[in-house]
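Quick one: structure for this chain?
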Amino acid sequence: MADQYLKNSNCNLDNRHSASPKGYSRPSFQTALPLYMQVSQFLRLQIEEGKLGQNGRLPTDIELARLCNVSGMVIHKAMGYLASQGLIDRKRKKGSFVRPPTEKVLIGILVGPDLMDETAYLYRNLINSIHDEIMTLKEHHWSFRVYDGLNKLRQEPDLQTSFTYQHLVNDLRNYSFRGVIKISEQLSSQLNIEINGLALPAVRFGANLQKSDVVLDFADFMRETLEFLHRQGLKKVVYLRTIESDPVYNQDIESVKSVIPKLLLSQFEIHQIQGLSRSTGSLMEEAVYYKTMELIKYWQTHKRWPEVLIIPDDIATRAVVLALVSKKIKIPEQLRIVTMANKGIVHHYGAPVIRYEIPVRVVSKTLIDILWNRMIGKALPVLPVKISGSIREPEIGEHTLGS
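Got it. Here's what it folds into:
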């Protein structure tokens, strides 16, 4: 019976089922918070005071519903909330248990690129930012494990029998994982992890508007950049596009179409670099370098020099600057460079570069907020959430940028 789990609790038995034990009083659920939140707060207090689950095992949902005089659905949501916070552990067909204070809930972070890749700056910075954000959520009792280099699983002939996949799935089944953060929309669609037949709550960061929950706002990048250049009186612009040409990645192009007519640019060209979707950072740099060399030759031959070159990737920007400097083109005197970059990541471009800086900390916080809402069944914001940035001009003599 439920009373064996509860000692001197304030919960009240539903009078329709049995009489109230001596000393029990009905909990007051009268605040503006949703009822399941009020019940979860009450149960948390009972657990922390040692009045509930003293031997580790908790009453069933039916017994708790009777004790607290609420519906089974309310108890189910309240217990799910406590499990997401790491206070309890719910096991199918076994029951609910109080988690030892030293045991934490794990979040799996699945990363497409290899974090050892020299060019994986964004991903390393994002992992560090997620770590810092989780450390501030002390009441959640969260920790995390990182699994990187998963893009290569797309090359496996039979993904589900591969060693990497089996290692990942075994870890997720053998540890107390409660959610997954997927970084890179290129991760195989087969990486939908299930625990005990139930899909883990997940959140995805990438560039694909249809597949990702959080994306970088390339539309705002182009809009803000073009309007900034317009204010500077610059009207000859080339956009060296490293984003995939698939329509689901075209938010930057749509933005250009809406802004260009208003700015009266005398020259605007888009040069798409093909075949970058599966390239590592170093291969992308090589492709961008040779494309830039081709453009320089064209500009010299036809005397059609732009005033500004826009690149939506700061790794690619290093290759662009290297090509320009090798041809003794002065930056910014002859040609200005604008790139999308990540605030807090330091790069030595070798020349002054204007940066549209994305706050990585906002990305990590948004990912965690969405994951948490999914874990507790709370309403989500309009998805995908687009993370925008702001223009930062280089200081005089500054070649290395970052904060």
